[in-house]
Amino acid sequence: MGILTYIFVTMFLAFLPPILWLWFWLREDAHPEPRREILAVFLAGMGAVILAVVLESNFFAANRFLRGVFGYGPFYLQLFNIVGFAFLEEIVKTSAAFFTALRSKYFDEPVDAMIYLITAALGFAALENALFIGESLKAGLAQSIAVSAFRFVNAVLLHVSAAAIIGAGLAFSFFHKERRHKELVLGLFFAVLLHSLYNFFIIENIGGDAANQVVITMLVVAGAAVALVLFERAKRVII
Known about the structure:
Elements: H1 3-27, H2 35-70, H3 74-98, H4 110-136, H5 141-153, H6 155-172, H7 180-204, H8 208-235
Helix pairs in contact: 1-4, 1-5, 2-3, 2-4, 3-4, 3-7, 4-5, 4-6, 6-7, 6-8, 7-8
């Protein structure tokens, strides 16, 4: 496979799922956001992957250092990594939306918070997909398609669901600024919990590949269902 074909296949398989999900969520918005804002947030979400990699690398090193100091076992080392990585990824995705559209004049209704958080998450998922799929291409096109399909259903939906939960906190406190910090912390807690559970099942592979896949899919589908319910509620938020 030539280098140009390699790049094209990687980008196509990586970006198609997030773009399809983005199209779905944007259609749910009764008052569409400017396309340039959506693009800016999507690109910021992609850039957040780089920041996440740097932060996670440092967190991993710090966790190993602290293990040497306090002597906790491999279970806690893994647990701290799972929760820490989930927390860092949710923070960088939220920051990507915050430092772009959430500070602009276009953030003018509650549901916009969820749209922009989801868009940032999909940008994040797109570049993350490219990294995974690019690596899997070394094992052949069939393997890359399988990875892309898995991430379409699972990883991309996971990022969307977690971002939607955080966005809901901003949406529900849109007219009540005094509740914003509380709602954000609550949203972040449940987003990190969902993300951590996903990471746990991915890493531990409980029950074998087939059983683990069923549990992971059920988890992300439940998360997506919650995201849809929150989205519909956010569209009806009034003063």
